[in-house]
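ok so for the tutorial part 2 we go from a plain amino acid sequence to predicted structure tokens. step 1 is just haveing the sequence, like this:
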Amino acid sequence: MPVHPLKRCTYPGCRNRVKAGRCPEHKRQADRQQDAKRGSRRERGYTPQWDKYRLLYLKAHPLCVMCEKEGIYTPAKIVDHIIPIEGGSDVLFWPASNHQGLCVSHHSRKTTTQDPITKQQRKAGMFREQEEAARHRNDWIHEYNKNA
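step 2 — the prediction. this is what the tokens look like for a chain of 148 residues:
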């Protein structure tokens, strides 16, 4: 089988040779920059309160919903937001109707393939009904307190 010659790292000015893309040094650098833009878990809304909720949710929904559809029983490890969120203050962060248990493999696949499309659809206003329902999900508490 023929061997392809190595190419230069795509980082400007780098002379390292690689099979494709960037050398390990510049890959790490790009990853660090991406992580800095993204913010930490806590900055994105994943607080100790979320950690407790996550454990309760996974206890109640222990299997990956995608694997179940395929007839495979795989434990769910991640509580996924069906409609992607924009941080902890997002109206769709907490409603259980926007959560599903996924295995790591299905979560990675969904995040890279479906989430970008869903984010565009959300910006276009396709999920207004879900957002409105989420805004009013705790109205019963305020009504109860008024009457008490």
